[in-house]
Amino acid sequence: MPDPVGLLSLVLLWLLMAVTAEDRITSVTIFSLTPSPYHPQPHLISIKVTESAGPHLPVGTRYTYHFSTNTSTSLREVPVEESGLGLQGLAVLDVLGLCQMALWLQDFQVTSILGAKVELLKESESLSATLGQNPLRFILHSGRVAHLCPHPAEPRWVLNVKRAVLSLLQGRPGAHSPNTLDEVDILGRCPTTYQRRGDWLHKTKDLAQCSLRRGRSSLHSQALPGVAPGLTSRLTCVQSFRAGVLREASCTELDAAGPLSAKASAVQMRTLSSLSLLHEMPQDPAGTDPDAGDDKDMTPSSLLYEWEETPSQAMVATAAMLVKRLCLAQTTSLETEKEVTATGEVPWAQGQGMGEVIFGDPLHRWVSDAAPSESQAMDLFLTLVSQLQGLSGGELMELWRDSSFKCRDNGQPLLDALPSCGTEHCVGLMKELIASGEVEADEAEAWLSSLAFLPQPTDAMVHMLLPLLQTPRASPGAFLGISALVHNLCASLDAPCGQLPGVGSLVRILGDALGENCTIQEPSDDDKLQLVLKAIGNAGLAAMALTPTLSACASLRSSGPEIRLGAIQAFRRVLCSADRSVLSRLYQSPEEDAEIRINAYLALMRCPSEEVFAQVRRTQAGELSTQVGSFVWSHLLQLLETRDPLKRALRDALPEDILSQEFHPEMWKHSSYSDVTFRSVFGSLGANVEGTLLFSPASFLPRSATVNLTIHTMGRAFNLLELGLRLENAEEIAHRLFGRKSFWGQEDGREAKPEKPPGPEPGPVPQRASPECPGDRDRRMRDLQQKVTRRRGAAQQALRCQLSMKVLGQELSFVNCGATGSHVNHRSLNLAELAIRLMKGQEVQMNRRLCLATEELVFPTVSGLPARLTLNASAAMSIRVRGTADFQQRSDFSVNGYVKPSALLQISAQMGTAGTLGQAGLRWVTSVRGATSLDGGIQVQKGRDLKVHLNMPEEAVELLSFSSQLYLITRDGVRSLRHVPGPSEAQSCTGEEVSYTWGWRLCTEVTWPVPGQPYLLSLPVFAAVTLQKRDPGLRQYLLEAAYTLQPQKDSWFPQEATAHIFMGTPGSEVPRDVGVDVSYSLPQSKFRLKLLHPKKKIELDGKMEALGSAHVGHLELVLDDRDVYYIKVCSTPLAHVCLHLPPPQGFPARVPEPC
């Protein structure tokens, strides 16, 4: 083995020969004996410099600098506390030889910054010892750090701090005129501009263009052109050189995350780093070479930041404890949480925090037996997800065996957390549980759909999931979820993904299912073939090899329209470099169905070009189909007028003469396209809604419709939701519902001859058999042919419908009317099981926690500390149902029980530093809660007696609440902002009269920031809608309605009838009963009316009597059970009328005498 010292001497000799040559290409070659992660074998590294060597530092000289860096996070332009970390110490540079130097760090201090308060960390001394343990050798050539030779035992975070020092040292001392070049430092490879201003050299960088920016996202989005990104980063440095020696350097890095509103404040992370020369002194060259005998252990490196690798602290016992704690969580609590105490500490974050990302020791709070609140449960859930990400496959299986139980509220936290884990081990466990049938079908479908949103897909995930597609009963979720996972994997790679084993196997499976041209052997294969086409559309970038088959499927006219449309729509994610000639042929072919042509046109316009525009211009000029022409006309007009940033390039590229023939489509008669863009007046929020409505010449009903919603925020576009519906042969249903007349009318004269729907060619008209014909074989054949024709015609007229849903561009749900039977049967079984439990009087409780979105961006800062910007959106839903039902017959039943749903949506964002030295920054938490309850019953007897009661809860109910709060992240945990002015508050409730009448009052409480107070949204920091009980005795609302009828012979008018209506609150001290009772009897010639009101009670009785030839009428009026009035009317044959009235109030009443 060669002598390491001799090799080092050889390296120095080559360096000497290289740097002594002026104004020519310099080549420095270094031989590494130690394998590195990037080079597993000993190798040669060649460095080429294409500029003059310039002045050189004297060998044996020591330069001592003072290094200082502070990173703090706060709200921009708002006087509020900031949280950060700081490093200060001495950086000693020894010149070992020509261009060869060594860096020592000495007497470092690590500080915590909290507003104006700076504290020295307890661990500062040990951290300083680690920083100064090993020197760092490097090569400095013409102001550029060309190469590092770190010690193999050097921790990555220590090496990154040293890289930060050397990045300040690096510069272009000979630069005079403005010059922009690619420079490599700790921030990555970035375009850098140098400019001389007097004695100072200015250096600027747009850090958004740097290479070292690592993101992890479960929400796939697209950058909005011409819109400022959500995160802006910029570096500005000034340097002073004298005789080639850096005297002073100062850099300011600003990273700002823009708010959702223009009036709100942005979160800004400011990093200030400086390097100042204290003194220089000559040293003995023989004594300045550190560790001269350890060259064989050194691995070559560069100034590029190395990501810190924190060992996972996940344990099975910790995850199991989290599951048990989540089982204790009361997700249906209706109380308003008080997040901040009087001391300014957050109750759930006192002492230590909870989560691995934001907090310290997570076990600090889990030992408590108290049930966590809603917000605490949400943080526990995110912590459980973080724990699962650190467990191996065997540990996950062990956890599943121990913690796969159901909680008392029927929730399973482990089942909810597994889809949000996103690691290969979690995906492997999910696959094993689905294959073995250990999870229910609904849960399995939800898991498979979650594959479309894994933030870091791998080919190993695809490979382990493929067996789910090779079973005879592969579910739709398996095809759609795995194909979406493959597309995300291919989109994350810079090279083609078809060579990956898992991706290639999936493409072969999908290709075998298609066949050569999508021909099917059995009618039952039609649904599976449509599902495969949807999966190919999801796979997108991985489906390039299947485009010839898709072209054949789209061109085959013998296939059904669903198959052909599925093949056309499968081109939606295929690269524009693929062969799309079939789309051009279908669009330009007048013999094709209008729906086929329109969909081919839309697929063709996904890859616009001059050739495509020319085809559209020619086709539109001679278009004979009103449906196709109207749609293309409306589509191009909408594009020319659109305000959508994503369509701006297409709008500008459209030729002026592309619309040569005018069409005037009618909305409910012709196919059309619509495009609407919304933009908030203040802020970066916006949305775009697209819609298509396609008609067919063969029907007055729309053939298909789609709606596409895209949200614009933070400089990104999120294709949130797309819904599609296709309907065929629904005319008979429409006629049954609305009658035979239709306001759609028929096609006008411009429409070409209607395209006939695909079907059997009409055969010859059967002729009646000749009576002279001795045989009847021909007659039987004709009858059989006629029956088959009728059956085929009836089959053609069967209803066809398709429902599809895309979420963030991923098709996750596809329902075909021909395949709904299995879904209906499956749902019926679930409903039957639920009905059985309810009939037994058991409470059914369903809880679900979801991690809706995970966004993370990690990037280095000029201080050497990593910065992290995270966004988490999670939700919790709960519903409790209990009741009994007795259905004897349709007119005699009773239902009693309650339904209590509740939901919580929490969005948390954090920005700041997070690494080995600790964490510091800001955290923003926004939550929306909603809860209600419905408790009561309905009773119906014989169809004539109805009783409805609604039970009232004991306390107040918070129907809806919104809160938005800021917190400071420190090494010790989380706490609220201090020295912030008190917010403005307002409360409004319904009037006293309304509250007295109903026993409740509706109150709204709103809190918003005062001018100068920090906030991130143009929304209140707190808002709540509460229903408060004002009547303590109110227990129930009651509604009664009943009637009886005694029919009369030969007449529609009943002989006797009674009616009763009552609404009230029985048992309440406040009178609010309202009722009406009416009854009459024709045989008895009497009637009765009773009116009940909180302020008045009226009873009216009437009777008619016949006394010989006279008739006597009696009326009795009773008011409030106190005042009685009598009226008696007598009539005789001599037209004599007697009227008896009661005496005035206060006089004794007397019974009226007979007439």
Give an overview in words.
The protein has 1155 residues and is α+β, with helices and mostly antiparallel strands. It is 25% helix and 36% strand. A hairpin with a 3-residue loop joins strand 27 and strand 28. The radius of gyration is 40 Å and the shape is globular. Mean pLDDT is 79; it is low at 1-54, 331-367, 742-775, 791-796, 819-825 and 1146-1151.
Look at the structure and give the mean pLDDT.
Answer: 79
Which consecutive residue ranges, at least 5 long each, have pLDDT under 50?
Answer: 1-54, 331-367, 742-775, 791-796, 819-825, 1146-1151
Distance between the termini: 144 Å
Number of strands: 41
Give the fraction of residues assigned to helices.
10-25%
Q: Which class do the helix and strand fractions yield? A: alpha+beta
How many strands, what sense, and barrel or not for the largest sheet?
A: 20 strands, antiparallel
Rg estimate, integer Å: 40 Å
Strand content: 35-45%
